[in-house]
């Protein structure tokens, strides 16, 4: 096993087959939500995958019943009005997108449970995304009182069209697996008990294929993502700006305490 992987604390890494790397987000007690350390790991793992001489394709999934519930709410609370912490998180959010895009090896996400925030970014930035039936996800940024900034404003219009992207990003409504496949947000939807088998079958097919042709095809396709980089950078900056406003504080508190938010800028609170 590539020695660089020894540094990871919240990602379990193994090789289930020759040329295939399995990365498991491993904080099941927190639904694999990312604390500061895990967020850093999710940003940097793709550089190590790119350098790993024994890996041809990576599969990422979550331990337990979730893929990843996004940012740990305790971490989100620590970001409020904390300029150094917000800058660090912004750079890592950018690195997740850039490093997954620039990793020359194919990445497959096996979406086994709820995916939100940074977890959803990883799920959908993967070159091939396979989702289990019965699973739902949402881009919950607006629900938290911040702009959809970590990938969706850039990626979703390419994948599902502007009308659907506008609807789901403005409302933060949940999307189930069948609908996600139908509108093009994920590559495939399969029965839950077949998810990892399907992911490994696709991974093995890619690992056995012509490596330079596969990697060059990924490189070419990802110019679609690179061409939208200004949209991503702008949306990320707007998300970070929102963390200094009162709506984000209310959103974090409401989610933490499992209540309906009363955003200071909303008509209910303003009336």
Strands, helices and their partners?
Layout: E1 11-17, E2 19-25, H1 36-51, E3 55-62, E4 66-68, H2 73-79, H3 83-102, E5 107-111, E6 114-115, H4 117-125, E7 128-132, E8 136-137, H5 141-144, H6 152-160, H7 162-171, E9 175-176, H8 177-183, E10 188-190, H9 195-207, H10 211-221, H11 223-227, H12 229-242, H13 246-256, H14 267-270
Parallel strand pairs: 2-3, 3-5, 4-6, 5-7, 7-10
Antiparallel strand pairs: 1-2, 8-9
Helix pairs in contact: 1-3, 3-4, 3-12, 6-7, 6-12
Distance between the ends: 60 Å
CATH H level, superfamily name? 2-enoyl-CoA Hydratase, Chain A, domain 1
The helical percent reads 40-55%
Number of helices: 14
Strand order of the largest sheet: 1-2-3-5-7-10
The name of the CATH architecture is Alpha-Beta Complex
Biggest β-sheet: count, sense, barrel?
A: 6 strands, mixed
Average per-residue pLDDT, rounded, comes to 95
Task: Give an overview in words.
It is a single chain. The chain is of the alpha/beta class. The chain has a single domain, classed as 2-enoyl-CoA Hydratase, Chain A, domain 1 (Alpha-Beta Complex). It contains 14 helices and ten strands. The strands form three sheets. It has a six-stranded mixed sheet, sandwiched between helices. A two-stranded parallel sheet has the order 4-6. β2, α1 and β3 (55-62) form a beta-alpha-beta unit.
């Amino acid at each position: 096993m590539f020695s660089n992987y020894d540094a990871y604390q919240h990602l379990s890494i193994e090789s289930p087959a020759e040329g295939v790397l399995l990365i498991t987000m491993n904080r099941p007690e927190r639904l694999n939500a990312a604390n500061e350390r895990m967020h850093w790991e999710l940003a940097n793992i793709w550089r190590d995958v790119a350098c790993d001489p024994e890996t041809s394709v990576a599969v990422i999934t979550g331990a337990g019943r979730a893929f990843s519930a996004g940012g740990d709410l305790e971490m989100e609370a620590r970001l409020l009005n904390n300029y150094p912490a917000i800058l660090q998180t912004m750079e890592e959010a950018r690195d997740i997108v850039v490093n997954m895009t620039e990793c020359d090896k194919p990445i497959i996400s096996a979406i086994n449970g709820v995916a939100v925030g940074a977890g959803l970014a990883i799920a959908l930035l993967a070159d091939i995304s396979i989702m289990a039936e019965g699973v739902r996800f949402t881009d919950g940024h607006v629900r938290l009182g911040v702009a959809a900034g970590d990938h969706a404003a850039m990626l979703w219009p390419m994948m599902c069209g502007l009308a659907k992207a506008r609807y789901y990003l403005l409302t933060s409504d949940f999307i189930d697996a069948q609908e996600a496949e139908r509108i093009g947000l994920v590559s495939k939807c399969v029965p839950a008990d077949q998810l990892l088998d399907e992911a490994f079958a696709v991974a093995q097919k890619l690992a056995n294929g012509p490596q330079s042709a596969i990697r060059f095809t990924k490189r070419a396709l990802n110019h679609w993502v690179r061409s939208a980089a200004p949209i991503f950078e702008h949306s990320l900056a707007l998300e970070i700006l929102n963390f200094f406003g009162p709506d984000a504080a209310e959103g974090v508190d409401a989610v933490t305490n499992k209540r309906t938010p009363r955003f200071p800028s909303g008509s209910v609170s303003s009336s």
